[in-house]
Design a protein that fits this description.
It is built from twelve helices and no strands. By secondary structure, it is mainly alpha-helical.
Length: about 350
């Protein structure tokens, strides 16, 4: 709401470059060749999950930052925008338990691989939020102890309706699982790229290393969602249902939980520059490799809409400031005129 380990710094490498390649079962990445594989194993009709769930479960653990001295974080630069973005990310990572509740009310729990994965996924995501909270505390920007409850209460009606609709859809179609997995793949890849942008951009080496470690988990999460979705979407009915859900109900990470203005802001912060345009296109291109999703363009479109909205709000704020200044000037005129008359 997903790496390169080593010295602190702001490497310019993409999170999808070979230095941090996906597992050998690889998710197809734009511009990079996949390892040679048996033709049958890569066939779109293969019914074998190209993700080792058992290995993932065995190795799952909370993100480890015990070797990072967070007390030093405040000694390095950090911008107000970075604090704002981290607070947003903390809110969404901490909201995972609510997402899990919604998923458990769907047919996704009928799949053994998915339930195994979700058990570890929720645990790891909780500690992502916890770790970001620790960092914010260390730099003197603590969040409220009741923040998670406040975020839950602020969730929109749309989010609640999505939960209810998902549960209902499962009663009528066994193919909803593919839609959920596709949604998850988009979210995890977006989060992966978002952490990568922060790691490269920040001037705070402590922050850079923290988000790199969070990103390592997100990379594995994405790999499961993508590869599992690829299996579920082999059936044409699954593709049709997934297209309907994604076209009509998909929102960027945090949508429905955070206010629309905040969602637009985080998109513009992460994807607003030319590199961000490339990232949005890369996400779209990757998701478009899923069966039936060749049309997918939602990140590019969301980026464009967010930039327009942020620009509109900025112009409105500037106009309001100008009007306010003009009003103050007008209010100053009567006393001056009155004084002038009295002198005559």
């Amino acid at each position: 709401m997903p790496i390169i380990f080593g010295a602190f710094g702001s490497e310019s490498k993409s999170l999808l470059e070979p230095a941090i390649r996906f597992p050998p079962v690889s998710v197809p990445m734009t511009g990079h060749k996949l390892p040679a594989r048996n033709a049958n194993s890569m066939s779109p009709t293969s019914n074998q999950l190209e993700f080792d769930v058992e290995k993932y479960v065995r190795n799952s653990k909370k993100v480890d930052i015990s070797d990072i001295d967070l007390s030093q974080a405040a000694n390095y630069p950090i911008s107000d925008d970075e604090v704002r973005a981290l607070t947003y990310m903390c809110d969404i990572e901490s909201h995972t338990i609510v997402y899990l509740r919604a998923i458990l009310n769907t047919c996704a729990v009928e799949d053994a691989q998915t339930t195994s994965f979700l058990s570890c996924w929720a645990y790891e995501e909780f500690f992502h939020g916890h770790t970001i909270r620790q960092f914010l505390d260390a730099i003197g920007a603590p969040v409220s102890p009741t923040r998670m409850l406040e975020v839950q209460k602020a969730s929109s009606l749309t989010e609640w309706l999505k939960e209810m609709g998902s549960s209902i859809l499962c009663r009528f179609s066994r193919h909803f699982h593919g839609a959920y997995l596709t949604y998850g793949a988009i979210s995890e890849l977006s989060t992966l790229e978002g952490y990568g942008v922060m790691a490269r951009r920040t001037q705070n080496p402590i922050l850079a290393e923290v988000v790199r470690r969070l990103a390592k988990d997100e990379r594995r999460h994405f790999s499961f969602y993508f590869n599992k979705a690829r299996l579920e979407l082999q059936h044409k009915n699954a593709q049709r249902l997934t297209n309907f859900v994604i076209r009509n109900f998909w929102l960027p990470v945090g949508g429905g939980v955070k206010p629309d203005g905040e969602v637009s802001w985080i998109l513009s912060f992460i994807l607003g520059d030319p590199e961000g345009a490339e990232i949005a296109n890369r996400i779209d291109t990757t998701i478009a490799k899923l069966p039936g999703l060749e049309w997918f363009d939602r990140l590019v479109r969301s980026r464009d809409e967010a930039l327009q909205e942020v620009g509109r709000l900025s112009r409105a704020a500037n106009q309001e400031a100008v009007c306010g200044l003009h009003s103050r000037r007008v209010e100053l005129k009567p006393p001056v005129l009155e004084w002038t008359v009295s002198q005559n």
